[in-house]
Amino acid sequence: MAELQEVQITEEKPLLPGQTPEAAKTHSVETPYGSVTFTVFGTPKPKRPAILTYHDVGLNYKSCFQPLFQFGDMQEIIQNFVRVHVDAPGMEEGAAVFPLGYQYPSLDQLADMIPCILQYLNFSTIIGVGVGAGAYILSRYALNHPDTVEGLVLINIDPNAKGWMDWAAHKLTGLTSSISEMILGHLFSQEELSGNSELIQKYRNIITHAPNLDNIELYWNSYNNRRDLNFERGGDITLKCPVMLVVGDQAPHEDAVMADSGGQPQLTQPGKLTEAFKYFLQGMGYMASSCMTRLSRSRTASLTSAASIDGNRSRSRTLSQSSESGTLSSGPPGHTMEVSC
């Protein structure tokens, strides 16, 4: 590994009563496809995987995941796991703009950077949490390195390459819309954008005025040129680990679960997502003695257990007793848990 850098920083965030600031270390590692930056919180726990996150296009790890990991009930989870937040190349805060003609890595190549991160940290297994493009990258990594992935949380994943109609629509949109507008249309639904809530205004400002917007466009192009993951139910190409599929209620293709755009539940519904994540971890055999969240005590949540990752899925708007006890329906080779936030 060449050019390893380590910077000690302290993350600024609201603290719970009696809680001390959580130290973070930011590292940069050279890989065959360029340098990648990642931030580590906490210390490794014996016989437990690291939680590794990967953000969507237009965001970095902070703008994508801070509302989720700063949520009060999430603190019980992060105390039990070390976590690694990966920034796609050129997306980290203060990143220099890539020179003209720079060949940005494909999503497959971004996935191939992850082994360099784990080797540097000496981590053997992970639970991946990805949104959009990040969910695709972690899925590709899991397909290539199944023995190192204990579980996946995939938010708004689209595992398919763009078809001809999608490609044509993308080109036409590019003639009349700016890059920032297209990325906002990927992250949020038209209903959300039209409502122009405080959240939308915040992220519109972040993306429109991003100093690394040229870098963001490169990541965006790589996402739009992604290959099919070619998931096959019962076939050779399938995820071997437990999977939690998450889709926002605002996603335009919610019924398909795997949504390409619309709704960012980790931003808008951190409580629901935290609760579902806790049950998912319990189903994997971790945090068995975890206390019930405030959401569980106050109302019934929305979870579904299923056995496949394709479109033939049942939905439930109530939290089943099996989910509350941490057990999930399973089918070979792993089980899939679906959540609508």
Description of the structure:
The protein has one domain: Rossmann fold. With 341 residues, it is of the alpha/beta class. It contains 13 helices and ten strands. Helix 4 links the parallel strand 6 and strand 7. Helix 3 crosses helix 4. It is found in: Cell projection, Growth cone; Cytoplasm, Perinuclear region. This is Protein NDRG2. It comes from Saimiri boliviensis boliviensis (Bolivian squirrel monkey). Keywords: Cytoplasm, Developmental protein, Differentiation, Neurogenesis, Wnt signaling pathway.
Question: What's the short version?
Answer:
This protein is α/β, with parallel strands linked by helices and 341 residues long. Helices cover 35% and strands 18% of the residues. It has a 10-stranded mixed β-sheet, sandwiched between helices.
